[in-house]
Amino acid sequence: MNTPRHRAGRRSAPREGGRLGVRAFTLVEMLAVLAVMGILFGAAIIGFIHFGRGQSLDTAGRLIQKHLVLARRTAMTERAVHGVEFEDRTAPQRDRLRVYYTDTKQVPAKRVTIGKWYELPPGVEFGDKSGGNMPPTDSDGIQFKPTGSTVNFTGSFSIHDVETDKVSTITVVALTGRAEVSP
């Protein structure tokens, strides 16, 4: 019978002292692999930390846009003026916003909140770096007519991340009521 002399996975003949010639990793090789894995793990953690910092401003922009769209759609659906009210608060309290409508059936007319107040993520504030370009923080905020257009606002306002010093702009088109966020 023709059989190969050496097969894969077969142990070699016993050496002197009775131990089989089994190949294994040395302690130095194992420590080198662990060191490389530690370096890669550390780099990944640093990347996640920096990734999370940049997301606060994007999250705030999406939150504001979502509420503006909700107020506009609700105004069009219910055929009544709805708005988004902005509240610029001093630290340590965070700036916040809410969607509302005015119930004109009650005397005197009463403002009714849809949902609750939503705070901006920590470190994000209304306005640009110098404190200008604020959203309308008067009692009406930004209101939408049943046609979807705005009642009292044309233009844009800014939000900025205090930690990263980045600014995003929220633009509301008066005729259509469309809200867009740009970095």
What's the rounded overall pLDDT mean? 83
The quaternary organization reads as single chain
Termini separation: 77 Å
The proportion of strand residues reads 25-35%
- Estimated radius of gyration: 31 Å
Strand order of the largest sheet: 3-2-1-5
| CATH-defined superfamily | minor pseudopilin epsh domain
Write the element-wise H/E pattern from the N-terminal end onward.
Answer: HEEEEEEEE
Largest sheet: 4 strands, antiparallel
Count of DSSP helices?
Answer: 1
**CATH-derived architecture:** 3-Layer(bab) Sandwich
User: So what's the overall shape?
Assistant: elongated
Give unreliable regions as ranges: none
CATH class category name: Alpha Beta
* Helicity level: 25-40%
Domain count: the total is: 1
How many β-strand runs?
Answer: 8
CATH topology: minor pseudopilin epsh fold
SS-based class:
alpha+beta
What does the secondary structure layout of this molecule look like, with pairings?
Layout: H1 27-78, E1 82-87, E2 96-103, E3 110-119, E4 124-126, E5 142-144, E6 155-161, E7 167-172, E8 179-182
Antiparallel strand pairs: 1-2, 1-5, 2-3, 4-6, 6-7, 7-8
